[in-house]
Amino acid sequence: MPLDSTLRLLLLSALWGASFLFMRIVAPELGAFSTAFLRVLLGALGLIVILATIGVRWNFQGKGLTALLIGMVNSGIPFAMFCIAAQYLPAGYSAMFNATTPLLGVMIGAGFFHEAMTRDRLIGVSLGLIGVTVLVQTGPVAMDHQLLIGALACLIAAGCYGLAGFLVRRWVTQRGGLDTRLLAVGSQIGATLLLAPLMLLEAGSRPTLAAWWNADIWWAMLALGLACTSLAYLLYFRLLQDLGPVKPLTVTMLVPPFGVLWGALFLGERVTSAHVSGGLLIALALWIILFKAPQPHLR
């Protein structure tokens, strides 16, 4: 991999790992839906400014509504779910749950999109689920209903990411394609439209609005929306352009270590053997699914 692509990959991993840190800071104060809404709103505004600056033509080729719908699945619901989880789970936990996206993608593909379930994929999914179980049952967070709510929210988010990949292929790629930068900004606008009413309901029901005047919260919010969303999307799509569709998926393995690292450095989150053992099992599962040579399918 060229040095410049390697540096972009590491920066992208650090940014997406940091997103769990910032959600952990903001969501308990502003609320899950308000945090998710502001993230996609800032992400959309940042992308609009960047695309206008570099002179990208706004031609959605009749796929504008499709981009909005994909954004609701690929950004709106997952960001809201991760913000719900951020109210209960350490940032490192959520980052590691996020790594299950390819595992759930394999299961969704086999169940609903006629994708072949190979022996290696089945082994990978099994190892990944064992890794999640190790993290939940032996990690530093007590096993209670709050942990289960947070874990379920993360898995719903990862499942949406997995589903979105198939929707993009069916609704966009197989119908002539679309400039990925337009798809990125269209998806953030779609997510903003989905989350706006939920944000308004949540903001009206919270007992105090003091957090909205907290400068530290807004610095974290700006970092989440502009750096971890706008800039991160541009880095990711540049990697897709330079390296093709497979190698950038390495980011899935690199985000959890960064998520755990930022949580430990800035929030004082404990790192235990459960992080190591569960993380290694998930990493092995991802390697088997993403990079091991394909084998004959089971059906």
From TrEMBL:
It is a multi-pass membrane protein. This is DMT family transporter. SUPFAM superfamilies: Multidrug resistance efflux transporter EmrE. Residues 9-136, 149-290 form the EamA domain. It comes from Litchfieldella rifensis. Its main location: membrane. It is found in: Membrane. Keywords: Membrane, Transmembrane, Transmembrane helix.
